[in-house]
Design brief:
With about 475 residues, this protein is α/β, with parallel strands linked by helices. The chain has helices at about 20-30, 45-50, 90, 110-130, 140-155, 205-210, 220-225, 235-240, 275-290, 310-325, 335-350, 360-370, 385-390, 405-410, 430-445, 445-455, 465-480; strands spanning about 1-5, 35-40, 55-60, 70-75, 80-85, 135-140, 160-165, 175, 195, 200, 215, 245, 300, 325-330, 355, 375, 395-400, 420-425. Helices cover about 40% and strands about 15% of the residues. The chain binds adenosine-5'-diphosphate and alpha-D-glucopyranose.
């Protein structure tokens, strides 16, 4: 099968969150299963420094903006997949992030930037038999790529199958209706049966309406988004799509995320040689200026600092665990009020709370390894990857009972001797504090905690099983188009 993944991020080309990890690791797993995978990405500033690209051809000016788009090809680093880089410098070659400027303000022309990505994907998929092997499936990720499924549906005949994955329903890609002519949408797109969503145009909705199959990144989140509470207005449409909607649990790239080979760690370790984990703990305390104590656990947080992630719950719960002698390590950036609140907590507890603002891949690995427990108190979490990384590094997570967190972490108090972490339900500081205190108690019981670590480390979350499920979904999507896979 030849699969075109369309996304706004993929490690190591560009990453702001778990989407980037998933696009690359899924692509690598599909190639390992003998399929041909190309990942179409925007050529943001700096991308050509991270890959060995060669020019392919010009794509003209798909949106009539007066800018020629060009396609480059490169090996997707650390995989056997190919990256196609969409170069259109006036839209993508900018100082700042993929979605906004350095202050975090969204680029005002995001509708054009991501319509171009999606339209290029649709054009390339249709033209693929003329310049190589035909693309069988276009797999679009999140709102930034969703329009690819719409262009293919609007243009009609002879199109490949389409699959749309929702990594986060809350990112809806909403713009005023006036942009529809600019992105080349037909007049019929302005309808509640198409892109119209509460008097605006939603790119996310394009994927939910037009894709042959829709997936999201965990079974529980697939259920949650079909309820009024979790569906934020899309639940009716998702229920109507019926069996076309599936939850497929994300895997992790076990080559990158492996404490036995991790170059970010001083002393590698595995299940049977945990001395390296103790060294990682000491190293983390020293790196971040924490007191070198061994009498209470170190809790880590590696997260975007946003409402979704429940960072406020963690902050409000922190007093209870600090009173127990615990230490806290927080790595992340996000909403200014939360960045300020974590900085204030660190300032109030020198040597006991350490905060690093920003994005630091190496430090994230050292936290997953060096912390005793990882806290992921998300209000909602489509899948979540940090709890999976932490488990693999022998760091049981404390998580809220939602989405992929619920699907991947089992509470060790609920069924003693079987759990892989600690789970709390109501999204409140009290419930979060209680779970963290239960985790402290488990940490103090050395033999119990080593059983918990062992179970966490032996969970299998590699991509092989989920890649197989995606292949089944691709075949279903192709069959729904009358094409055999
Ligand atoms: P989301 O995509 O919603 O942010 P995930 O848990 O799926 O949540 O993925 C987050 C990814 O980003 C993980 O790979 C995590 O390690 C990484 N990450 C988050 N914040 C940081 C940070 N400040 N520095 C380094 N990596 C980070
Ligand atoms: C989104 C979700 C996160 C998920 C990631 C990868 O960013 O917020 O839960 O793990 O996508 O699918």
């Amino acid at each position: 099968m030849r699969i075109l993944q369309v996304a706004s991020e993929a490690v190591p080309v560009c990453k702001t969150g778990g989407l980037a990890d998933v696009v690359t690791a899924l692509s690598a797993a599909l190639v390992d299963a003998d399929h041909d995978v190309v990942v179409l990405l925007p050529a943001y500033r700096g991308v050509f420094d991270r890959v060995e690209a060669t020019p392919l051809f010009e794509l003209g000016d798909p949106l009539g903006l007066g800018h020629t788009a060009r396609l480059w090809s490169a090996p997707l680093p650390d995989t056997r997949a190919t990256a196609w880089l969409l170069q259109c410098d006036p839209l993508f070659d900018r100082v700042g992030g993929p979605y906004g400027d350095e202050a975090g303000i969204d680029w005002p022309d995001n509708h054009l930037r991501f319509a171009l990505l999606a339209r290029a994907a649709a054009q390339l998929a249709l033209a693929s038999p003329t310049f190589g092997r035909a693309i069988d499936v276009v797999h679009a990720h999140d709102w930034q790529a969703a329009l690819a499924t719409a262009y293919l549906a609007w243009w009609g005949v002879g199109r490949p199958a389409t699959v749309f994955t929702v990594h986060n329903l809350h990112f809806t890609g909403r713009f005023p209706a006036s942009i529809l002519p600019e992105i080349g949408a037909p007049a019929s797109a302005w309808s509640p049966k198409d892109l119209e969503f509460y008097r605006e145009a939603s790119f996310l909705k394009a994927g939910l309406v037009h894709a042959d199959r829709i997936t999201t990144v965990s079974p529980t989140y697939a259920d949650e988004i079909r309820t009024a509470a979790g569906g934020i207005g899309f639940d009716g449409l998702l229920r109507w799509r019926g069996g076309a909607v599936r939850g497929v649990l994300n895997g992790i790239d076990t080559r990158t995320w492996n404490p036995a080979t991790d170059r970010a760690l001083g002393v590698p370790y595995d299940l049977d040689h945990l001395a390296g984990k103790a060294a990682a703990r000491r190293g983390l305390q020293s790196e971040l200026g924490l007191a070198p104590q061994n009498t209470a656990p170190v809790f880590g947080v590696v997260s975007r600092l946003t409402w979704q992630k429940g960072i406020d719950l963690f902050l409000a719960a922190s007093a209870a665990v600090l009173a127990e002698g615990a230490q806290l390590v927080i790595l992340g950036s996000g909403e200014p009020a939360l960045e300020l609140a974590v900085a204030e907590l660190a300032a109030a507890h020198p040597g006991r709370v350490a905060v690093r603002r920003g994005y630091d891949e190496g430090l994230s690995h050292r936290i997953f390894a060096g912390a005793d427990l990882l806290c992921v108190p998300s209000r909602f979490e489509p899948c979540g990857l940090t709890q999976l990384y932490a488990m693999r590094y022998g760091t049981p997570p404390v998580v809220r009972n939602t989405g992929g967190l619920a699907d991947t972490v089992a509470d060790d108090d609920a069924r003693p001797g079987t759990g892989t972490g600690f789970v709390f339900d109501p999204p409140t500081a009290e419930a979060c504090a209680q779970a963290m205190l239960r985790a402290c108690a488990a940490w103090r019981d050395t033999s119990r905690f080593s059983g918990l670590q062992r179970r966490a480390m032996t969970q299998r979350h590699d991509w092989s099983a989920s890649a197989g499920v995606y292949l089944d979904i691709y075949r279903e999507a192709m069959a729904s188009r009358g094409v055999r896979g």
